[in-house]
TrEMBL record:
Organism per entry: Candidatus Shapirobacteria bacterium GW2011_GWE1_38_10
Positions of the ABC transmembrane type-2 domain: 35-258
Protein name from the UniProt record: Transport permease protein
GO MF term set: ABC-type transporter activity
Keyword hit for Cell membrane: yes
GO CC annotation terms, alphabetical: ATP-binding cassette (ABC) transporter complex
C-alpha cells in the first residue's frame, strides 16, 4: 500500500499538469471534426440502436428479472460502463507510446499519462450518459435512492480499470504486440460479461466464473441499482473491490518496476 500512497501524493503534487493533459486529450480528439463532441453521444447511441435490434428483435434475448424494462435501456445501462472500460483500457495502453517525446525530455510521474487518458474517457462517458437519462424519463423508469450505489460501483470500476491500464501501458511500451493482444482480450471479455444478456441466463455451474470477473459483477450491480431499484449483491461487490485493489497494486508495481527503462524503449 505504501507505493500506492506515495504515487497518490505525487499525482496530487503534479495535479496542474494532470488537468492540462486531460484538457489536451479532450480537445485533440475531435479537433477539425465537423460534429465535434457530438460523436461522444452519437457513437454509443448508434451502438445501442443496432445492438437492440439484433439482440431483442432477431435473437429475442429476454431481460428476465427486469422483464418490464425495454431492452434498449437494459442494454444501455451495461453498454455505457463497458464502453468506458474498453476505451479507457485501449487508449491508456497506448498513452506512453503516444507521449514518447515527453517521457524522454521532461520529468513528471509517468502515471499521469495513464490517469489523464482515463479521466478524459470519463468525461466522454458523462456526456454519453445523457442519452440514458433521456431514455429513462421517456419510458418512465422509476428511480429510488438505491441509485446512489452507482457512485461506489463506479469507483470500484475505475480502480480496476486503472490497475489494468498501468500494466498494459508499461507492457505495451516494451512489447508492442500487447496492443493487438489487448484488442482480442477486450472482445472476448465483452461476451464473457453480461452486457447483452442478463446474468440470470448464466448456468449455475458457471456463476463462480462471473463472481471472479469484476466487470461482470460491476455491470450486474449497475442494473440492480438503476433498473431494479434495489441494492447490489454486497458479497459480489466486496469480492470485486478486493480483486480490483489487488489488480491496482499489481499493476502499479509492474509499472514502477519498468519505469526506469521507459526511455530506452521509446
Amino acid at each position: 500500500m505504501l507505493p500506492l500512497i506515495k504515487e497518490i501524493k505525487d499525482v496530487i503534487k503534479w495535479r496542474e499538469l494532470l488537468w492540462q493533459m486531460v484538457g489536451r486529450e479532450v480537445k485533440a480528439r475531435y479537433k477539425q471534426s465537423i460534429l465535434g463532441y457530438f460523436w461522444v453521444i452519437l457513437n454509443p447511441l448508434a451502438q445501442m440502436l443496432v445492438m437492440s435490434f439484433a439482440f431483442s428483435i432477431i435473437l429475442r434475448i429476454p431481460t428476465n428479472a427486469a422483464s418490464n424494462i425495454p431492452y434498449s435501456i437494459f442494454l444501455f445501462v451495461a453498454l455505457l460502463p463497458w464502453n468506458l472500460f474498453a476505451t479507457s483500457l485501449s487508449s491508456a495502453a497506448s498513452s506512453l507510446v503516444n507521449s514518447s517525446s515527453l517521457i524522454t525530455k521532461v520529468y513528471f510521474p509517468r502515471t499521469i499519462l495513464v490517469l489523464s487518458t482515463i479521466i478524459a474517457k470519463i468525461i466522454d462517458f458523462l456526456f454519453a450518459s445523457t442519452i440514458l437519462i433521456v431514455y429513462m424519463f421517456a419510458y418512465h423508469i422509476p428511480i429510488s435512492l438505491n441509485i446512489l450505489w452507482i457512485f461506489p460501483i463506479f469507483f470500484i470500476q475505475q480502480i480496476f480499470t486503472l490497475g489494468l491500464s498501468l500494466f498494459f501501458a508499461a507492457a505495451n511500451l516494451i512489447y508492442r504486440d500487447i496492443q493487438y493482444l489487448l484488442n482480442m482480450i477486450i472482445l472476448l471479455w465483452l461476451y464473457a460479461s453480461p452486457v447483452f444478456y442478463p446474468v440470470d441466463l448464466v448456468p449455475e455451474k458457471f456463476k463462480i466464473i462471473y463472481q471472479l470477473n469484476p466487470m461482470a459483477v460491476i455491470i450486474n450491480a449497475y442494473r440492480q441499482t438503476i433498473l431494479g431499484s434495489g441494492a447490489p449483491n454486497y458479497t459480489s461487490l466486496a469480492i470485486a473491490l478486493v480483486l480490483s485493489l489487488v489488480v491496482l497494486l499489481l499493476g502499479l508495481s509492474y509499472f514502477k518496476s519498468r519505469e526506469k527503462i521507459f526511455a530506452d524503449n521509446i
